[in-house]
Hints:
Helix content is 72%, strand content 0%. It is mainly alpha-helical. The relative contact order is 0.14. Keywords: Cell membrane, Membrane, Transmembrane, Transmembrane helix.
Amino acid sequence: MGTIAFAVSGAMVAIEKRMDVFGVIVLALLTAVGGGMVRDVLAGITPPVTLCNITDFVLAMLTAALVSWLYSAGWVSHRGKRHIIWLYNICDTIGLASFTITGMLTGLSHENGNPYLLPVLLGVITAVGGGILRDIMAQRMPVVLYKDIYATASLVGALISCLLYPYIGLPGMAWLCFVIVVGLRFSALYYGWHLFHPRPNRFR
């Protein structure tokens, strides 16, 4: 679910930047598997799982091809820009929550020392790493650094679910994390929540 969702978001950024179909596929792949590859390298899993299993690659490439076809066939038009943004945000949020969970599971399976630090950090890195690579390739500032409640939603969901993991078990932890991340992200989009942006005081 996360792979397909992030592949859609990567493909839509590529289309917005007017890339050709190769660029669309590259950005879809980067967004879908980039964060997981960074996670595996940091966790000492080499080669990364993605490079040993073709499923994620095929899913991302097929998704990118489908998005490209739908756009060129007129299913997605310039008039439907609001629907495009809506679809992008839904896919990006689902991917954010899903990959936060997979990163946490990797951290829990490699528990060493602090029981929270590794799962939480790997969860956040898995969730936002692909999006950062996507934005760098698209020559724009990574959204995670300035817009909305994004990485913060992943961080809060991972931390709370990790703290409650001993009491609710693995399935409960995964679902709790998913609900928290999706809830925070959609609430931020709906209500226009943002983190504090330091600004100079002009009235001094």
